[in-house]
Amino acid sequence: MGAVVEVSYFNSFLLKDVGKLQSSTNYESNGLWPSLPWDPDGFPTFPLLANSSSSFPYEWYVEESRIRGGFNNTSTELGPRAFLSENNDDEKVLQSTLIYSGLFNSSTDVNNTNVFSVADNITRSLDPRYGNIQFIHARDTDLTVFQQSRISRALIDKDALYTQTGTSNVVAINSVIGTIVPYEGDYGISDQPESFAYYGFRRYFSDVNRGAIMRLSRDGLSEISSFGMSDFFRDKLGEINNRPTTFTVVVNITSVSGATAVVDDVSNLTLGMQLVFNTALVLYLTNINSSTKTITCSNTITGTEPTSVTASMAVKDKILGGWDAHNKNYVLSIQRANPNPSTDYGYETLNFDDSIKGWVSFFTYKPTQVNSLKNIYYTFDNLDLYKHYSSQARNTFYNTQSSSKIEFVFNNNPSVQKVFSTVNYEGYSGWKASAVVSDETGADSNVFYNDSTNIIKSYDEGLYTDPLTGQPQRAGFNRKENLYVANLINNSSVMPGEIVFGNKISGVKGYFLTVTLETDSTTDLNGPKELFSVGSRFVRSS
């Protein structure tokens, strides 16, 4: 219940002595209050301007209820009135509680968005055992609340009444937020609300604490990371660190002009980084131009022209999610703040297709933001906006050309030792085999061996002229019966006890064979390169 606390004074008025300053040392006072000599010690004063000064001598704040203190003068409104709900007015942080304000109606000029009446029931608390509220998403007349370890649905402008059989009936109520109903399954969004994306009635997000990528749809919660990728996400999400770490990178400077500098590499730079030039000048990174490798600082780069700059920032790992409206895919980018350059690039960007219930492909770009507008898919690279699926060359992301790779595993009759003699594919020209490797074979002293071949060139890149016959020959894939076929020539090193090895052996020995097909860098760069099927011929090893 509210309480009224009385205050000691009424409204404040600033009074100035009406005396005249005759000189720096002579001051003639004519001030009266009212009809009586002014006594600076006889009335209450406030801290500001309470004492005399050389500029404004005898200046005070006083409290009065009537203008000029007259007996029958106009009365002013009372001063501050405090309405307290409790004696303890300390700040409270309720991280698992929802609160809503008053109404906003533009047609009637009613704006009560800053009104939080303690007399009304305007809060809804969730179970704090499931962590803080990380994200809220409104859809239709429901509010989906994402805690760290629980997903719940809050009814808006309605409530649910449960019968003895456990069924619920929705009824209208006066409160804004009704009953909060949790979804089945102990899943949450952990500390990565940036992984959220939605399309239609489907919502996607990550749960790092459980090593899962989730989908919330009309059938409830589903763990889409289990569709052939459970091991991958278990390992990658286990590397995510929610605590900020200081990331430092040193880049070389080519030239300096004012507040801008041209550097040799901008791939590891992020807006807001602290820049240290010549160990003394400290500036901040305000702009990055990836195409020209130009950075802009918060101020002019002064002093001796630097040859390098140290950039640092306290960052944390993040999982960025977004919706690709062009292909109707959920795009996910797992980004580590401080990667190990010797083992990875620090990120994995891939997409999920709900129509096939599977993860489609990995991508070579690392987006800062992901979004779609009018069926066009856009991503940001820092401040640079890029439109995907445009007329530019395929496999070109952020002005960097890359190749497509697909890895196949041939494992027919897994218990039979085989010799793989050929590899073939049906599709477009322009594919090469960048890696052909058999499974590892154990040996003494924990040394493992496997067979492999050299790179098998594509149909066009493998063309050469035989110096003896002058006829064109193919050193890689050749066409045969509507297939592109290549023989496998062994190039492995000698193993203990082997008499014949290397290119003297035709074929690759092993229980299974891993083949990586990759697009080349010359064949129809802007055109499509499709693969319809890939196969291999093998015989039983003797």
3D structure, described in words:
The chain is mainly beta and 542 residues long. 2% of the residues lie in helices and 44% in strands. Strands 19-20-23-22-21-24 form a six-stranded antiparallel β-barrel. Strands 35, 41, 42, 43 and 45 form a five-stranded antiparallel β-sheet that branches. Strand 19 and strand 20 form a beta hairpin. The N and C termini lie far apart (92 Å). About 7% of the residues have low confidence.
A few lines on this structure:
With 542 residues, the chain is mainly β. It is built from 1 helix and 45 strands.
Keywords:
mainly beta, 1 helix, five-stranded antiparallel beta sheet, 5 domains, elongated, six-stranded antiparallel beta barrel, Elongation Factor Tu (Ef-tu), domain 3, 542 residues
The quaternary state of the protein chains shown equals single chain
Q: Compute the gyration radius: what is it?
A: 37 Å
Structural category is mainly beta
Strand content: 35-45%
What form results from the Cα inertia axes? elongated
Low-confidence stretches: 16-22, 30-39, 42-61
Main sheet, how many strands, which sense, barrel?
A: 6 strands, antiparallel, barrel
Number of domains: 5
Total helical elements: 1
Q: Cα distance, first to last residue?
A: 92 Å
- Whole-number mean pLDDT: 80
Classify the helix fraction into a percent range. under 10%
Q: How would you summarize the topology of this molecule?
A:
Blueprint: E1 3-5, E2 11-16, E3 20-21, E4 27-28, E5 59-64, E6 82-84, E7 97-99, E8 104-105, E9 110-111, E10 123-125, E11 133-139, E12 142-147, E13 151-162, E14 168-182, E15 197-199, E16 202-207, E17 212-217, E18 220-223, H1 230-238, E19 245-257, E20 260-263, E21 274-277, E22 281-289, E23 294-297, E24 308-315, E25 318-324, E26 329-335, E27 347-353, E28 358-363, E29 369-373, E30 376-381, E31 384-387, E32 396-397, E33 400-401, E34 405-410, E35 418-427, E36 431-438, E37 441-442, E38 448-449, E39 463-465, E40 472-474, E41 478-480, E42 483-487, E43 508-510, E44 513-519, E45 531-540
Antiparallel strand pairs: 1-6, 2-5, 3-4, 7-10, 8-9, 11-12, 12-13, 13-14, 15-16, 16-17, 17-18, 19-20, 19-24, 20-23, 21-22, 21-24, 22-23, 25-26, 26-27, 27-28, 29-30, 30-31, 32-33, 34-44, 35-42, 35-43, 35-45, 36-44, 37-38, 39-40, 41-42
